[in-house]
Amino acid sequence: MKGAAKFALTLALVAAIASAAPDEAKGTVIDVIAGDVLEVAIDGIDPLTGSGVVTVKVADVTVPPNGSAEGEAARAFAESLLENRTVFLDIDNESEDGRDLLGRLLAVVYLVDPDGEVNLTHPLSRILVDAGISEVKDVEGDEFDPGDWWRREGEPKTFGGAQVVINEVEANPPEGDKDREWAELYNDGFGDVDIGNWTVTTTGGSIVVIPPGKILPGGGFLLVRADGYWLRNEGEIVILRDDAGRVVDETPSFDDEDDDGNSWSRSPDGGEEWVFIEASPEGPVPPAEPTAVKGSDEDDDNWLLGTGGCDPYGLWDVSEFLQ
After folding, report:
1. What domains can you pick out in the chain, each with its CATH number?
2. What is each CA distance from 298 to 20, 122, 287, 294, in whole angstroms?
3. How far apart are CA 274 and CA 166, in angstroms?
4. For residues 68 and 54, is the Cβ–Cβ distance under 8 A?
5. Best CA proximity match to 156, nearest among 185, 99, 198, 120
6. Are 200 and 245 in contact (CB under 8 A)?
7. In Å, what is the CA distance from 196 to each residue of 209, 212, 231, 303, 318?
């Protein structure tokens, strides 16, 4: 195996990314041309790369162009993360000679953890997307599936670090709460997710089971309702679990004492911030006008008591690679 047998062993032991193969080439990043384009000095000789310096295009992501503020921020981020560091390349086997139309080597790039092990769970493509400086661009015809970068074995495939989240909660609707309370789920990703037999539970003890076979398409919404009263108006937390009982998402603790048409909503859809704003069941959250939003900095009893991330495994800390 082209001089990297020990990495094949690592690959076999790590089930997080079944298709990862960072054993095709190894080198040192000597220049960062753009957030997704690198100059890599190859160690040894490889049939696809040859020897010397090659230009590598990071697979299936796109960043703003150099010269723009966003593009320069992406380049600076990648430079701080990569320059003079060892990387391993999983070269695209579907492209001619593993290269794109500009002759650049098309590859998923893997970094090395501080302990010297190849980090298979966070390829560079994922790091760039999670950091908010690039977007997924799944190139048709290459061997890579961006969904695998966020996937754990046996779990639904997600894209861009996104997943199914609790997007909106209406615990105190106008004209009475009985049979009218609801929570909205949102698939903040590109791929469909089977959410059959998932549950929506509350700290008040309510359990709502989603019917088997229910598919939530990418970018889609699903309204979850229940008979009677199932959402408390004070100190309520709503929790979404998959069919194995694992927590997928949960809301902060919130109060909704106003018998009106507002709900607690992520803003924008799938985002980290929660606002108390006009309800939008099964549709996009409306723009958060300053006069329409209640937040934790207002002198009001009806405010968000806490904050919670939407990633059940916690956000990965990119600083682990920064020294």
Report:
1. 5-154 (2.40.50.90), 164-292 (2.60.40.1260)
2. 48, 39, 19, 7
3. 11
4. no
5. 198
6. no
7. 8, 4, 22, 33, 34
- What is the full DSSP assignment across 219-237? T-EEEEE-SS--S-SSSB-
Residue whose token pair is 């384009």: 37
Contacts of 163 (CB under 8 A, 6+ apart): 150, 156, 187, 188, 189, 193, 248, 249, 310, 311
Strand partners, 105: 56, 99
Single pTM value for the model: 0.48
If you average pLDDT over every residue of the chain, what do you get?
Answer: 76
Token look-up 């958060």 returns 288
Cβ-proximal residues to 271 (8 Å cutoff; 6+ apart), any chain: none
- Helix (H), strand (E) at residue 171: none
DSSP 44-90: EEETTTEEEEEEEEETTEE-PPBTBHHHHHHHHHHHHHHTT-EEEEE
Answer yes or no: are the C-beta atoms of 141 and 59 closer than 8 Å. Answer: no
pLDDT digit string (tens) for 129-183? 877 788 888 887 788 888 777 665 444 444 444 578 999 999 888 887 788 899 9
Q: Which residues of 168-179 are buried (b: 16+ CB within 10 A; e: fewer)?
A: bbbbbbeeebee
Structure tokens at 201: 């539970």
How many residues would you count in the chain?
Answer: 323
CA atoms within 13 A on the CB side of 292: 15
